Amino acid sequence: MVSIAETVTTAARNAWALTFGAGVEAPNPALSTVLWDEPHRQLRRYDGGASDGASAVLLVPPLAAPASCFDLRPDQSLARFLCDTGRATYVVDYGEITFGDRRMGFEDWIDDILPESIVRTSADTGGKPVDLVCWSIGGTLALLTAAAHAHLPIRSITAVGSPLDYDKMTGIPQLRAVAKLTGGIATSTAVRAAGGIPARLTRAAYRVTAWDRELTRPWFVASNIARTETLAKMESIDRFMAAMPGYPGRFYGQLWGRLILNNDIGRGVVRLGERRIALADVTVPVLLVGGPTDVITPAAAVEAGTRTLTGASVRYETAPGSHLGILTGETARDTTWVYLDKFLSEQN
Q1: What average pLDDT does the segment 336-345 reach?
Q2: DSSP bridge pairs for 314
Q3: E-strand spans in 145-244?
Q4: pLDDT tens, 282-292?
Q5: Residue 345: which pLDDT band, with cuts at 50, 70 and 90?
Q6: Does residue 208 carry a pLDDT above 70?
Q7: C-alpha 151, offset from chain centre
Q8: Of the residues 41, 285, 328, 347, which has the fewest C-beta atoms closer than 10 A?
Q9: Please, are residues 162 and 288 in contact by the beta-carbon 8 Å criterion?
């Protein structure tokens, strides 16, 4: 039993660490080895865990979120979990997005960054096919990549919280109503002028979706000042949000025009210029995980993939938590990670 003196000491130490120090828990990322390092496509292999004959898993983050989403801290690390199950685990890291990247679009990820990462991952495991495990729009990009390039060594795709129907997304009808007043020109012009969506805006937008967390933060800290583990989890989310990069201008223009305004993805065919990429052309097994309490990508927007991915065997599951929580929150180990482990095991 913890004494009052120990509780007071812990509370004082935590208060000092939060106010004047570096925080209650130092960052402790999983060890990894850089295999390939070029702009927006750094490929790392997590150390340890892989046994002979291990399957290859490539973690695919979304844009506007750091690759650390898969490895927030030791107890909230999907990367460590996959390594612990004996799988060779890799991650592609896009790094910072700057004004100089403003001409990058969907094609850069679909035709270049992700295919190259998949091929290099496969090669590093002796040519084994790769299981893609993705979060948020990373899953959308992975599915479009698989649809556009059937020759890639992809064994399966898991998409957690991935938007596959923007008609089901919160606030989209209101955005479309406003866009109709200008034909969408105001937004696209502003994005082009800025060269994209700056990192500070993506961070602010993410905070807005968790406004209740921001509003109650002082009370949360005060009421948990002696609970170091709880405060450490809070800090991991803070670090995650502080590291959010932005969107390239062209990419966001395509996202705005083709997905948000026209809902190409919800109709099953994304148009990029004269090109058409159909989700029906995905033929590998797919696991979709949606969050009924996810306010960024509602579960219905994820489940829509069961309707459009007609060429694949699709499994749909749900998990509690926020958009990030369904991937690596407190209950993810007993929900999303269990679904994933079972799904990947069935691919053997």
Answers
A1: 97
A2: 286
A3: 154-160, 196-197
A4: 999 999 999 99
A5: very high
A6: no
A7: 25
A8: 347
A9: yes
What is d(CA 130, CA 306) in angstroms, rounded to the nearest whole number? Answer: 22
Q: Determine the average pLDDT of the residues in 260-279.
A: 96
Q: Exposed, middle or buried: residue 98 (CB in 10 Å: 0-12, 13-18, 19+)?
A: middle
CA distances from 2 to 8, 9, 230, 270 (A): 10, 11, 17, 58
Residue 109: Cβ-neighbour burial (10 angstroms; 0-12, 13-18, 19+): buried
Three-state SS for 92?
A: strand
* Cβ proximity of 59 and 67 under 8 Å: yes
Average of per-residue pLDDT across 166-192: 68
Residue 329: DSSP 8-state: S
Question: What does the pLDDT read at residue 138?
Answer: 97
What is the secondary structure of 115-128 as a DSSP string?
A: HHHHHHHHHHTTS-
Cα Rg of the chain (Å, integer)? 20
Pick the closest to residue 23 from 165, 195, 234 (CA basis): 234
C-alpha 281/C-alpha 308 separation (Å) is 10
Conformation bin of residue 196: beta by default, left when phi > 0, alpha when psi is -120 to 50: left
DSSP-assigned beta bridge partners for residue 91:
44, 59
CA pair distance 57, 79, nearest whole angstrom: 9
Neighbours of 112 (CB within 10 A): 14
Mean pLDDT of the chain: 86
Give the tens place of pLDDT for each residue, 64-123: 889 999 999 999 999 999 999 999 999 999 998 888 888 999 999 999 999 999 999 999
CA 22/CA 212 separation, integer angstroms? 25
